[in-house]
Amino acid sequence: MEQRTNSPYPKLDRPVLAVIGILLVVSTILFVRSDRLRDFWYYQYEFKRMVADKFGAEKAKSVPSGLQQIWVRDLRHADRCVTCHQATAWKGFESAEEPWRTHPVEPLRTHPPERYGCTSCHGGQGWAVDVSEAHGQMAHWEEPLLGSELGEAYSLVDDKTALMQMNCNVCHRYDRETAGATAINTAKSLIKEKGCHACHVINSRGGTIGPDLTYVGDKAPEQYDYSRLSGQRTAFAWHVAHFKEPRALVSDTVMPNFHLTTREAQALAMLVLSWRREEVPAEYLHGAPRTDPRTPEEARAEEDMKTGPGAWFVKTGCFVCHSITAFGVRSPAQIGPDLSIAVEDVQARFGKTIDDFLANPTGTMSVVLSRQIILSKEQKAEAVKNLRAAFAEHQKQAAHK
Amino acid sequence: MRKQGDAHGALTPPSEAPGVHPKPLWSFRPDSDRASGDAVVSNFLLHWFPAKALKASLDWNYSLWLGTVSAALLLLLVLSGMPLLFLYVPSVERAYATVKDIEYVVTFGSWIRSVHRIAAHLMVAAVALHLARVFFTGAYKNGVGQGQRREWNWVLGVGMLLATLFLSFTGYLLPWDQLAYWAVTVGTNIASSIPWIGPAIRELLLGGRVIEQPTLIRFYVLHILALPGLLGILFVYHMWRIRKDGGLARADREALLAEKAATPPAATKTYTLLGIARGTAPTIRASSLARPDASVNAVPDLTRRAAIVCLGTIAVLSILAVFIRSPLEEPANALVTPNPAKAPWYFLWLQEIVTDTTVHIGAFTINGAFLGGVILPGLLIALLTVWPWLDRSPAGVAGVWFARDRRTQNLAFILLALGVIALTLVGTFCRGPYWHFYWPWETWPEIPARI
């Protein structure tokens, strides 16, 4: 074997390598620690304790721990708010401090969390699990938590929690009035009252003197001119000031001063900022028509069917298969024979009177009358009466011709 | 076995050198002693390091170990990129959300992403510094060894710098946030300023005329497949050439000095790696390497130092990644331009030149993008590439920091580098909204929020 040379290196290099080994261990501890140390452990620990105090240790065991989320597939929201706000669905913590407070039950009845998540109404950042970031108080996140703290900051007149109504109006923008959204409702009536449509296009209707406001809520905060605005420099503050005195912010504007109160200006600012191009599935859009379009004639014919002499057949459901031409009732399916001539027709087909046939139906009608349209004795008598009336009408019309 | 040194002079290549293998591949099941010897000798992975290393090449203050640092960072990038591959979805609808998930709910996700991002930035810096070191020491110059092609290894190095820059740039787009979208907008608009073919190049890069899904998938495939593959191949070739060229340039200088000391002619060694070399193999005169006072065994002295550098890089980066979180801006929005829209820091000197050479004369605007974004960097890269052939200094200065014979070119390089650094600093710290100049201690106008 070759002779090893005398190396001068080990004396210094070995301790250096040892120090780096220690550094590696330290770095491992650091990154594991930073990953494990999360605010939510404390909130979950406290909530478990509160449940144990109130309902006993057994119940406390059912409180989940670790990351929790509500995944709303339709909206592609993963809201992890429930990691800390664990009490939302629990009874008995109505007066507890946040984040351990029970969510008011009433709004959840119409807006179940599994269909809406949390952030669609409350704002904030559902992805995040650290307090300030989840509440949207960070750079590069433009959806802050729309809570009373923010309302205080804007000194909202009366209801400090009203900012949340901006998010209501994402789905409810085509409603004339939305229950509970008082500020938005006020603003909507102001829009009508002051005639905003005269100058502005809103939802594809209106004049062209002012800019189109349909999606004005999407205008980036950087795109406003704040040079003449004092105080908070946000799009919301700009709109409030602009509604109160348009000329103060835009010197050459032709928009008149409507002498709005602060409350009205704030409500209008909320409304216009809610007009955004949000991608909401159609079934979430309240008030938007989602039926097949009908011509006025079709609508009138349908109305006549429902209120005319044939109304009983429509109400009972006979018209699904049978037309009653004598009464102007037209079946959408027309599977069965016209009931105008049933009195004659039944006799010809089955050799029975209409009364006998309804009492002891045969063939298809025996199935229908035993499963789909079940009639009592009185109802059957009414049916016979109506059928006779229809036949009489038919004969009258035939004689006329 | 015939003694090589006797039959041929120390400088003439041996016609039949031992170890020059007739077969291109070795066998894992050798059937003779010769074949088993070949299997060991011709395996590159077993010859990453030589058996003995010159003490001078191991010095901290000669190479600064910047190449090893770069390699360690590349290793970290590959390792941290693997888990990200499982987590990230390259789709415009989902990319941003998956990065948010990596940040907030994936175990160690935020740290892994920071390791990847910081390593990418530092690798650009380390590779650039490595290039500067090689330039200042004239290490692209051939010395006394035979079959040396150090100038080509320099060209490979320039190629690797470009690959590193493009890797970093393609990675920039993937989070699909405002930073990504607008950095890529700036970058590809510069490409489109080339006369005649510019718009076509932009369209090729973007996979269309706007930054959309085709752009994202292009940048993604370039980032995870094409560019790492290219860099990997260049890297292996780079390392192989170092051995073929007889080690660091400093080794040749040691040999020259030894020659002056009139050591008797000694045995010649030839090397072949991966068994690829045919015919004449590079010959390194063993005289200097054989001197017991000038060299040490590679194991453990060289490997220990390599371990110090690699593990040290990993440890420092790992700690940095705990404290420096990676930013993620608003989701990409083609309608809102962040103000100022800045390119990544290593391109900021170019963006600075682009804006400084954009001249408004009356209603006319002469766009600086072509000059600052294409001509100037193109010229610099071309000059860098051919520099070893322009450098006429004597062979003896290879491996010497700031050699007197290379004073002018070192000075020119320093001035250019200082210019680039100054422009980068101005671009990074002194440019605010509308690219207006602000001193670092001046506050920018407040960025407004929505609500």
Provide a descriptive summary of the structure in words.
- The complex is a heterodimer of chains A (401) and B (451).
- Chain A contains 19 helices and 2 strands.
- Chain A is mainly α.
- Chain A has 3 domains: 39-134, no CATH class; 148-283, Orthogonal Bundle (Cytochrome Bc1 Complex, Chain D, domain 2); 296-400.
- Chain A has a two-stranded antiparallel sheet with strand order 1-2.
- With 451 residues, chain B is mainly alpha-helical.
- Chain B has a single domain, classed as Cytochrome Bc1 Complex, Chain C, CATH 1.20.810.10.
- Chain B has 17 helices and 6 strands.
- A two-stranded antiparallel ribbon of chain B has the order 1-4. In chain B, strands 2-3 form a two-stranded antiparallel sheet.
- In chain B, helix 6 crosses helix 7 and helix 9 (178-191) runs antiparallel to helix 10.
- Chain B is globular, with a radius of gyration of 25 Å.
- Classes of the chains: A mainly alpha (401), B mainly alpha (451).
Strand count, sense and closure of the main sheet of chain B?
2 strands, antiparallel
Q: Report how far the terminal alpha carbons of chain B are from each other.
A: 86 Å
Radius of gyration of chain B: 25 Å
Note the quaternary state here: heterodimer
Query: Judging by the overall fold, what is the CATH architecture of chain B?
Result: Up-down Bundle
Biggest β-sheet strands, sense, barrel of chain A:
2 strands, antiparallel
End-to-end Cα distance of chain A, whole Å, is 127 Å
CATH level 4 superfamily of chain B: Cytochrome Bc1 Complex, Chain C
Structural class of chain A: mainly alpha
Indicate the overall shape of chain A.
extended
CATH fold name of the largest domain in chain A, please?
Answer: Cytochrome Bc1 Complex, Chain D, domain 2
Q: Quickly give the CATH architecture of the largest domain in chain A.
A: Orthogonal Bundle
Find the count of extended strands of chain A (DSSP E, 2+ residues).
2
Return the CATH class of chain B: Mainly Alpha
Mean pLDDT across all amino acids of chain B: 84
Number of helices of chain B: 17
Characterize the overall form of chain B.
globular
Whole-number total of structural domains of chain B:
1
Order of helix and strand elements from N to C terminus of chain B: HHEHHHHHHHHHHEEHEHHEEHH
Structural class of chain B: mainly alpha
**In percent, how much strand structure appears in the residues of chain B?**
under 5%
